């Protein structure tokens, strides 16, 4: 269908906004992406780069409540909640706490699995044919455990994910770890490999993707801030920006962690809280691990890129805090060193923080903005925005076209917030 006469403005130029631009452009719309800063320089920049359909378990697990409470007394905890007397945050925490049950966890896992699988398939197609130079590798994701207790608890979860959702994994015993990857310290209990996961360098992905879309006539406007909306009944007729009014037939809100604040301009309330994480990027060590790895007992992940080596982690609910704590960066390095045999390069090439767009049920928000007929939401991707970007873009294009969606979109609808 030729939709060139219909225009879409996407608010937010992170990986989600870019993916929406891709599928809307493919559907024939005239697309403009507005970005208040630089494209893909916020949460989509320095993340760990995992495309991980294995990550089907939400943040809200039965253990999360205990960990969250403990963190009130331990500022070095990787998962940390700093109490704030803000009604929206208290409400968010209450809803999150209510979901920390096994039943809710498995239900959420099913919904995450559906969209992750769709996304992984889209990525395989896109990265094979269209977007190159992203340092993509389909080498799996390896979870390494120091203690047998932690390994057994995790293996039980992996078995549940395999039985209920078909997520494939294999156990590698501690005595065989040296053969699997000689960069690991001896004495680990073992690890679980998820072979269907992949990784890439997120900044290279967005750079290449934007460059390809520019060649297909998508307009990207950096340094332009969305400020408000003009409406006529249920229709948004234009948006106010730092460079004046912009009219369009359709709008997409893809402003990451800021989306909760932005939604109020459309008369809606969205429970999106910033979940702050950090990463450091180093030169690639002389002896680099072969595959990306997670060390769940220290809540830290490493990603070997062709062009470097990243360590990332932490989940802080501390509001829109822009500081980069030296202590946190040192903690990343120290945590990875518990597992890696060789010393890491001494200096950081880059240090970074990002605000993950967190919803209390760990599910993204995709589909119609309540109270409007021409605004679509694409936000709340929690810890999985990179992984879920293509399927999100595809769902958004289907929603705007009024097409039958390729997967059931109801679990991701904003209608669930009442
Ligand atoms: C340490 C860490 C590691 C992670 N690792 C992974 C991983 O391995 N795999 C994975 O799948 N996910 C990972 N994530 C999560 C992932 O990074 C996020 O879910 C994802 O980047 C969110 O993308 P987004 O486009 O929604 O948000 P963003 O990238 O934050 O983009 C939103 C954009 O909207 C713009 N914006 C905001 N307000 C306005 C406005 N008023 N006007 C115009 N523009 C505006 C912002 O400037 C920003 O560029 C990780 C996150 C962290 C912190």
Tell me briefly what this model is.
The chain is of the alpha/beta class and about 425 residues long.
Explain what you see.
By secondary structure, the chain is of the alpha/beta class. The chain is 31% helix and 25% strand. The chain is built from ten helices and 20 strands. Strands 4, 5, 6, 7, 14, 15, 16, 17 and 18 form a nine-stranded mixed beta sheet that branches. Strand 1 (7-11), helix 1 (15-26) and strand 2 form a beta-alpha-beta unit. The longest helix is centred in the first third of the chain and has 28 residues, at 102-129. It is globular and about 65 Å long. The model has no long low-confidence stretch (mean pLDDT 94). Flavin-adenine dinucleotide binds at residues 11-17, 34-37, 42-44, 47-50, 225-226, 254-258, 262, 277-279, 312, 354, 356-357, 379, 381, 383-387.
What is the topology?
Blueprint lengths: L6 E5 L3 H12 L3 E6 L14 E2 L10 H10 L7 E3 L5 H12 L3 H28 L11 E5 L2 H18 L4 E4 L3 H4 L9 E5 L3 E2 L2 H13 L4 E4 L3 E7 L2 E7 L2 E4 L2 E4 L5 H5 L9 E10 L10 E3 L4 E6 L2 E10 L8 H12 L12 E9 L6 E4 L6 E5 L5 H17 L17
Parallel strand pairs: 1-2, 1-13, 2-9, 4-17, 5-15, 13-20
Antiparallel strand pairs: 3-8, 5-7, 6-7, 10-11, 11-12, 14-17, 14-18, 15-16, 16-17, 19-20
The site of flavin-adenine dinucleotide has 40 residues, from α1, β2, β14, β18 and α10.
């Amino acid at each position: 269908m030729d939709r060139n006469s219909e225009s879409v403005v996407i608010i937010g130029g992170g990986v989600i906004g870019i993916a929406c631009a891709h599928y809307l452009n493919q559907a024939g719309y005239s697309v403009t992406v507005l970005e208040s800063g630089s494209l893909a320089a916020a949460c989509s920049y320095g993340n760990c780069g995992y495309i991980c359909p294995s990550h089907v378990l939400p943040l809200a697990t039965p253990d999360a409540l205990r960990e969250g409470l403990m963190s009130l007394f331990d500022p070095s905890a990787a998962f940390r909640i700093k109490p704030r007397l803000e009604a929206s945050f208290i409400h968010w925490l209450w809803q999150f706490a209510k979901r920390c049950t096994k039943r809710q966890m498995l239900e959420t896992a099913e919904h995450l699995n559906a969209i992750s699988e769709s996304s992984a398939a889209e990525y395989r197609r896109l990265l094979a044919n269209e977007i190159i130079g992203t340092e993509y590798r389909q080498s799996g994701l390896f979870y390494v455990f120091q203690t047998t207790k932690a390994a057994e608890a995790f293996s039980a979860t992996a078995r549940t994910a395999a039985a209920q959702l078909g997520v494939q994994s294999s156990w590698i015993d501690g005595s065989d770890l040296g053969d699997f990857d000689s960069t690991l310290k001896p004495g680990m209990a073992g690890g679980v490999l998820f072979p269907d996961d992949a990784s890439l360098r997120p900044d290279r992905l967005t750079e290449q993707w934007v460059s390809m879309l520019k060649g297909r006539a998508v307009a990207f406007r950096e340094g332009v801030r969305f400020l408000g909306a003009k409406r006529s009944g249920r229709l948004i007729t234009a948006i106010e920006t730092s460079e004046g009014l912009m009219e369009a037939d359709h709008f997409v809100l893809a402003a990451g962690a800021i989306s909760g604040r932005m939604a109020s301009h459309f008369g809606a309330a969205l429970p999106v809280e910033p979940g702050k994480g950090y990463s450091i990027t180093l030169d690639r060590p002389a002896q680099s691990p072969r595959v990306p790895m997670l060390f769940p007992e220290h809540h830290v992940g490493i990603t070997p890129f062709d062009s470097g080596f990243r360590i990332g982690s932490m989940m802080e609910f501390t509001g829109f805090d822009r500081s980069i704590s030296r202590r946190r960066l040192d903690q990343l390095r120290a945590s990875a060193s518990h597992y890696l045999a060789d010393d890491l390069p001494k200096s950081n090439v880059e240090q970074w923080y990002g605000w993950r767009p967190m919803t209390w049920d760990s599910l993204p928000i995709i589909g119609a903005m309540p109270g409007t007929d021409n605004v679509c939401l694409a936000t709340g991707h929690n810890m999985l925005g990179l992984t879920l970007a293509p399927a999100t873009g595809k769902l958004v294009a289907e929603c705007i076209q009024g097409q039958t969606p390729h997967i059931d979109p109801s679990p991701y609808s904003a209608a669930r917030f009442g």
